Fold:
Amino acid sequence: MNHIPVAIGLVLCEVVIVDEKSHNVTAVNCFNPRKVKDFPASVEFFLLAWLADGLGEMPVEVIVDSLETLEEIHRVEKRLRFDDPLKDKYFLARIRECVFPTAGPYVVSLFACGELIAHRKIRVYQ
Structure:
């Protein structure tokens, strides 16, 4: 039986470094407002989330929505496995070619088994 994890934190960043020995992660160039050259803007970034209390294998989705139109503009689907609910785990998703059609507010949401576990609002501007 799956137990949906709890998100401890979520960041959006340009680079993620994973240490080979310790497996610790470092988020580099984290952002909330995101400046782009022009629109539509194709942007690549990482979503890094720290998760706890999960158990089992489950589908995970990252969805980017416009807060003005409520349109989904990007989706990434992955699978995640938790072997021990007492061990925290990080989740990393590379968001490639996410096209922001216009300036404005957006939300990047993380779902596990179809349930929202974390989200981050961002503003994209020129």
Notes: Strands lie at 6-18, 25-30, 33-35, 41-52, 56-66, 72-82, 89-100, 104-112, 115-125.
